[in-house]
Predict the structure of Prephenate dehydrogenase.
Amino acid sequence: MTTLNKELNITIVGLGVIGGSFAMALHDAGYRNLYGIDIDQATLDKAKAQQLIKEGYQDGKDILPQSDLVIFSLYPRLVHDFIVTHKHHFKPGSILTDATGVKKFFIEDILSVLPASIDFVFGHPMAGREKKGIDFASSSVYKNANYILTPLPSNKEENLAFMEALIMEMGFGRITRISADYHDEMIAFTSQLPHAIAVALVNSDVEGRETEKFTGDSYRELTRIAKINEELWSELFLENKEYLLKSIQTFEDQLDLIKAAIKNDDSVALKQLFIKSTKRREKFDR
Amino acid sequence: MTTLNKELNITIVGLGVIGGSFAMALHDAGYRNLYGIDIDQATLDKAKAQQLIKEGYQDGKDILPQSDLVIFSLYPRLVHDFIVTHKHHFKPGSILTDATGVKKFFIEDILSVLPASIDFVFGHPMAGREKKGIDFASSSVYKNANYILTPLPSNKEENLAFMEALIMEMGFGRITRISADYHDEMIAFTSQLPHAIAVALVNSDVEGRETEKFTGDSYRELTRIAKINEELWSELFLENKEYLLKSIQTFEDQLDLIKAAIKNDDSVALKQLFIKSTKRREKFDR
């Protein structure tokens, strides 16, 4: 395993719940030269007061030239805009990375404006919170979580290896390298479809019923993510629309099988569907 | 609040994950005259070895005549059969109760065979586990959970009050009295629909993908209950088919709104749906 230099200058752009969690995880891993860029001065002050960052900046031009690694945790479209604004400020040879939940469209958009001397290693930590802002940041959500990297042909192998070592230092449990396209296909299923389902489930309740008196863990668990950041997730849904629509359709086909079994009082068919889901879900227990 | 007599003889019929959890919660609450009836001798031996019950029986005829309260935690149809077999063994004036997830059909079925001297207070603890058997029993799942009672016109108020006091002693957080019909309507939405969704979600995965490498908490949470007891849940689904089909339809209507917004690149409509679900879900945080 690569031993990383803890003196590296690491700058996090966007100190919300994800950026704040990165700062905490990096701090836990022994990094102290951490810097933050955020449009919100109160967020920067809070991060500095908590000693998560050494210094905070509303503008990137002073700290970017000294930053060995820049981590973006912004809404997808803002990353593109940030790079356009700051393309002459990045340190030559530095690494950029991100935490964006869609990849194909996003990467094409970034590559069109990225300076050639900069290596952008695209990634996606498969862990998050349903809340916004640095107050909800936590490095513990990253412990043992999955991380996906979507390498480009142009990425230097040493930079990919650096990112993998850093990700493991932050406590993640498993890193998988896949193509941007496969990322988007899988994430439509494992992340976006569950969010669409949770939103639809909560919205299908009858207004005015005291539903909270009649819920068990199932309903609460299935709907936790119905508290959703509408700005972020509307972008994510629309930037992955083809795979997401396909995932929703495949899900609906399976729900139709359950409906048909119920309509036909077909307990044999129902049991077969339940046995199938049980066997499949057991694989996920860790 | 009623002070209950801890010397009462309480017999639990069916020492699976639910019955075992009742035994633990009653033991925690100070009851010691607890008895178990189960067809599986190993389960009875285990419950006795753990001191959850004083004695276990494969047949109910010896202990039922001395039981002040009998708690059924059996598959719905087996409760009916048990009462038919044992209707002359219940102690006159004793209370029966249950933990069954469907009520209207189930209650009609029971009332047709119940002796007049016995008061059956129908109830439903809104807490469970996705696993089977006494090894997974736990009184902690009941802490602060919801409990529903569906009183009959014939129930004695003192017996309803007794059950409510006992339920609170077991650690539940809230008890609501509603009709059997309203129970079934609500439970179709808060419990059965989430189970149908979880099963359909897991079954809609593409066979052979290494999905576990790409999941975050959302997918794992939404699918925990896809590990499902097929015997129990096929009964529950079919015995509540009308309300469940209606709940599935209402859910699909909401999913269609999300689909349409994605297809039309309508980020305004998507955001409105997300804002609605966020506001609704926030009410459930406790």
